[in-house]
Automatic annotation (TrEMBL):
EC number: 2.1.1.220
Organism superkingdom: Eukaryota
Pfam families from the UniProt entry: GCD14
Reaction catalysed by this enzyme: adenosine(58) in tRNA + S-adenosyl-L-methionine = N(1)-methyladenosine(58) in tRNA + S-adenosyl-L-homocysteine + H(+)
Purpose: Catalytic subunit of tRNA (adenine-N(1)-)-methyltransferase, which catalyzes the formation of N(1)-methyladenine at position 58 (m1A58) in initiator methionyl-tRNA.
Swiss-Prot/TrEMBL keywords: Methyltransferase, Nucleus, S-adenosyl-L-methionine, Transferase, tRNA processing
tRNA (adenine(58)-N(1))-methyltransferase catalytic subunit TRM61 C-terminal domain span: 62-353
Protein family membership: Belongs to the class I-like SAM-binding methyltransferase superfamily. TRM61 family.
Record protein name field: tRNA (adenine(58)-N(1))-methyltransferase catalytic subunit TRM61
GO cellular component, one term: nucleus
Keyword Nucleus: yes
Length: 373
């Protein structure tokens, strides 16, 4: 699939990465220009550059990165002709359907080919993808892309209505993936196409619960088992690195200062309130007033305050900070906050297995008989 050369060549499909939101494919055609808000480029400027290069524009308006396509990048960049499958769903479906190197898989409909590219890479040249699309122009476009991307031998794309006419293979594939408005109409056809010499799997991708219910009924009626439905959601986490904490000696010093200020304030309040009482009491004799004046009042000096709050002097207190400083300078505090918003619903994924009966199994692929226990 795609070019495996180190450098970009004329005729290659490359991915132009401009920003996270602006990623697009480009067929390198000498003589053509590429223009975007990130500048002006000639395709010939890109020929011969190693994949992954950062390229400055001719008019100094910015730069782009030229990347080698992968199915993941293709899904992010492809021209949408329909709704498409995204990476979270693709990964989950591929895993649940147990699609692997050498697998034989059916998908319908092809749509924009997002899922097809990923399956083609997974199954490789020893597997096969039978892809069906009833919209003729869409089928032609997808076929053209599959050929250009070097997947022509791995994918057979057929223009047909699978709900009405079924699939082109019988008793042959390991798994079926249906991304159709009415998958229930294709369930019996899928059953026919699945191989009968071993357990096989199906997945139906539907945006609404009503569709899921109809699909589940059809799967039950057709004898599928282990019917389960999943929804793949994404919950982004914001991870921040906090500044390293202060060394312990500094923290202790700060705490002491705070404590001193608090104590100073408290003593000031006591002194003020005693003074007010003396002045407000008309019955007090001169000697009373004198006695009260002799009551302890706010300490004047810093030394007196320290004595009262009994804090050690940071200048004279020995604090072994060697180990704590080491920890704090080395420690990096990572804070992860889950976003309250959960994104990603595109559809519900209804999965099921088809486990062949002994009779069906022995009628299946003869060279690989199923032994029942
Ligand atoms: C949502 S798109 C599939 C997107 C595809 N999974 C992807 O990742 O790009 C559904 C496609 O199914 C096709 N389709 C709908 N009903 C069909 C049928 N009965 N037989 C074949 N294709 C059908 C539509 O034309 C459409 O292109």
């Amino acid at each position: 699939m795609w070019s495996t050369n180190r450098e970009v060549a004329a005729g290659d499909v490359v991915i132009i990465w401009q920003t996270r939101e602006l990623i697009q494919p480009l067929l390198i055609t000498p003589g053509k220009d590429f223009n975007s808000r990130f500048g002006h480029y000639k395709h010939t400027d890109l020929v011969g550059l190693p994949y992954g290069s950062k390229v400055g524009s001719r008019n100094g308006n910015g730069f782009i990165h030229i990347l080698r396509p992968t199915p993941e990048l293709w899904t992010m960049a492809l021209p949408h002709r329909t709704q498409i499958l995204y990476l979270a769903d693709i990964a989950f479906i591929t895993s649940w359907l147990d699609i692997r190197r050498g697998s034989r898989v059916i998908e319908a409909g092809t749509g924009s080919g997002s899922f097809s590219h990923s399956v083609a890479r997974t199954i490789g040249s020893t597997g096969h993808l039978y892809s069906y699309e009833f919209h003729e122009a869409r089928a032609d476009k997808a076929r053209e892309e599959f050929t250009r991307h070097g997947m022509g031998d791995i994918v057979t794309l057929t223009h047909r209505n699978v709900c009405k006419d079924g699939f082109t293979v019988d008793n042959s594939v390991d798994s079926v993936f249906l991304d159709l408005p009415a998958p229930w109409d294709a369930v019996e056809h899928a059953k026919k196409a699945l191989r009968k010499d071993c357990p096989t799997r199906i997945c139906c991708f539907s945006p609404c619960m009503e569709q899921v219910l109809r699909t589940v009924s059809a799967l039950n009626e057709a004898g599928f088992t282990d019917i389960t439905m999943y929804e793949t959601l994404l919950r982004p986490h914001e991870v921040q690195q906090l500044p390293s904490p202060l060394p312990l000696s500094q923290v202790v010093g700060k705490l002491k200062k705070m404590e001193e200020k608090r104590e100073e304030k408290r003593l000031r309040q006591i002194a003020n309130s005693s003074k007010r009482k003396r002045e407000d009491d008309p019955s007090a004799t001169d000697s009373d007033k004198k006695a009260r004046t002799d009551e302890p009042s706010a300490p004047q000096g810093k030394e007196e305050m320290k004595r009262q709050i009994n804090l050690p002097d940071p200048a004279t207190t020995e604090i072994d900070t060697s180990s704590s400083t080491q920890v704090t300078t080395q420690a990096k505090v990572n804070l992860s906050k889950a976003s309250p918003e959960v994104r990603g619903h595109t559809s519900y994924l209804t999965f099921a297995r088809l486990v062949p009966m002994l009779k069906q199994a022995t009628e299946g692929v003869k060279e690989n008989p199923v032994v029942s226990d």
